[in-house]
Every structure is written in C-alpha cells, then in structure tokens.
C-alpha cells in the first residue's frame, strides 16, 4: 500500500465526511424552509464525496470497508481540518465555516481533476460541479450578511475573526503532501493558497468584511490526527449507531 | 403577508429546450439570485428540466373567481373555436 496516498485520500475524505456530518446536525434547524433544504443538500453532496473517497481509501487499505473508515476509527485516525469540526454555533458560524471550506474545495478540486492518480482525478471532476454550487451559495450569504444591516455585519465579521485561525492548516505543507505533490498526485498548496486568498478577498470586499491577520495557532493539525475538543463530541454522536449495533447493515 | 422569509416567488421549469415553461411551485427568498439558488435546491435536483423562470408572486396578474363566468363560460358552446375540423398532417406530434 502507498501509505502517502492512503493518508492523502483520508484527508480529502474526512474533510467532506465531518463537514457533511456537521451540516446533518442542523437539519430542521435552518432559519427557514428553503435554507434548511439547501444546507441539507450541501451536506448530502459532501457525504457522497466522502463515500467515494473512503471507498477508494478502503480499497487501498485492503482490510477494511468504507463504513468502518467512516464510523469505526478512533479520533486520532481522522484526518480532517480543525475548521470542519467547529460546531454549529449559529447560522453565521455555519455559513462562514462553509464559505472558507467551499473556496478551498473549489480551488483544490479544480487542480485535482488533473491529478496523475486517475481515481482522485475522477472524484475531483465529479465533486467540482457540486462544490462550485456550494461556493456560489455561501458567497451570496457572506455578501448579504456582511453588507446587510449593521448587526448582521458585526456578527459575520465576528465569525470570520474567530474561525480565521483555523485556515492556516489548509496550506500547511508536510512530507506526505510534498512527496505526492512531486509525483503530480496531490495539488500544489502554494497555488491553492494564492487562489484561495484571491477568491476570499474578492467576496470579502463586496461583503465589506475585513480580513483578519493570520496567526499560527496550532502545533498539531487535524490532518495529522490531532483534534480540537469538539471532535470527541462529534464522533460520539456520529459513531453511536455503529457502536451500538455493530452487526447491523443498511 | 409579513414574515421573515422574504418574498414569495413562483417557479417555472422548462423540461427541455423549445418546450413551454410549466409552473412547478413556489418558494420564499429575499432577492433574485437567492431565489434562483433556492429554486435549484428545491426543484431541479432530479433532472426536472434545463431552464428556470422565477416570477415574484405579487407581479402575477391573476383572474378573479368572480370573473369566471364572463371569462370562461362563453367558450363552452362554440365548437367552431376549436380547430377540430382540420385533418392533422401525418406525423405531426406537437400541434
């Protein structure tokens, strides 16, 4: 097994899985019906992407299936960004988290559709259509909330200020990524960083949101298995059914 | 009606290019582009069509129930208003 590729596949998969799960927690809590359905659709898209990626990871692993990878791992074995495990504090946080991640997904999948790994490339090409729409939606909300009333502006600015510290993980280059990037399998993080900032700047400008300074906040990243306190609670709920009924099929 | 869900919009879907748009339902949204996105999420996720029209419900002029007799009844007893006396060209499907 190519352990680098396995790790990389899990990183991609877990970002979609955990963000999808966070959105599923909010089902029926949306501010109004149309919005509730839209975020449920987004969560479902992400879950579909996670399923395809976890299937591919399971294939590489050879000893487990995608359901085990989704619901059977220990916390330190999940490789998602800290950003996506951040809780649904309110709709502003949910939309800001979504926007920051949507930009990353669009930029990342645009590059990955030309990956030398055929499976990653095809999953990226398929996911790109979905995440492009997610970004369009979350951008519109950022603009409306940022450039809306004084209250909505202050609230969304506070969400951006708070979540900003989780964004540097997206561009952190480690050995796993570097080796795969050299092989033409992983996306070029310096390109991602540049394009990510360009898109975020563009939307923030229209939304009159001020971009915070970037602090280096963490010595351990989610993609290496180190997680925030929020992750344990998330997994306890997400894995409950599989733990309670391990033999059950669906 | 005052509520916090925005304006009511009526959604029309064109099943495929060249075909007439059909009313599919309605939705709430605050403005044009968010209405379009909501329409995509509510009405076109299962291949229902290839184009959408959205109209603010308040912009639609609708006939009133009390106009029913004046507007619609006279049509019933005048068979010559219907093109039923012509021979249909062979093979034509959409006349």
Task: Please describe the structure with a list of short key phrases separated by commas or semicolons.
heterodimer; A: 250 residues; mainly alpha; Ferritin; 11 helices; 67% helix; 0% strand; B: 95 residues; alpha+beta; Ubiquitin-like (UB roll); three-stranded antiparallel beta sheet; 2 helices; 3 strands; flat
What would you say about this model in short?
The complex is a heterodimer of chains A (250) and B (95). By secondary structure, chain A is mainly α.
Explain the overall architecture.
- The complex is a heterodimer of chains A (250) and B (95).
- With 250 residues, chain A is mostly helical.
- Chain A has helices at 3-25, 33-61, 66-71, 82-85, 91-112, 118-146, 150-163, 175-182, 189-207, 230-238, 240-244.
- Chain A has one domain (3-217, 225-244): Ferritin, core subunit, four-helix bundle (Ferritin, Up-down Bundle), CATH 1.20.1260.
- The radius of gyration of chain A is 18 Å and the shape is globular.
- In chain A, 42% of the residues are buried.
- The model of chain A has no long low-confidence stretch (mean pLDDT 95).
- Chain B has 95 residues and is of the alpha+beta class.
- Chain B has one domain: Roll (Ubiquitin-like (UB roll)), CATH 3.10.20.520.
- Helix content of chain B is 18%, strand content 23%.
- Chain B is built from 2 helices and 3 strands, in the order E-E-H-E-H.
- Chains A and B meet through helix 2 and helix 6 of A and strand 2 and helix 1 of B.
How is this fold's topology laid out?
The complex is a heterodimer of chains A (250) and B (95).
Chain A: H1 3-25, H2 33-61, H3 66-71, H4 82-85, H5 91-112, H6 118-146, H7 150-163, H8 175-182, H9 189-207, H10 230-238, H11 240-244
Helix pairs in contact in A: 1-2, 1-8, 2-6, 5-6, 5-7, 5-9, 6-9
Chain B: E1 7-14, E2 22-29, H1 32-43, E3 51-56, H2 68-72
Antiparallel strand pairs in B: 1-2, 1-3
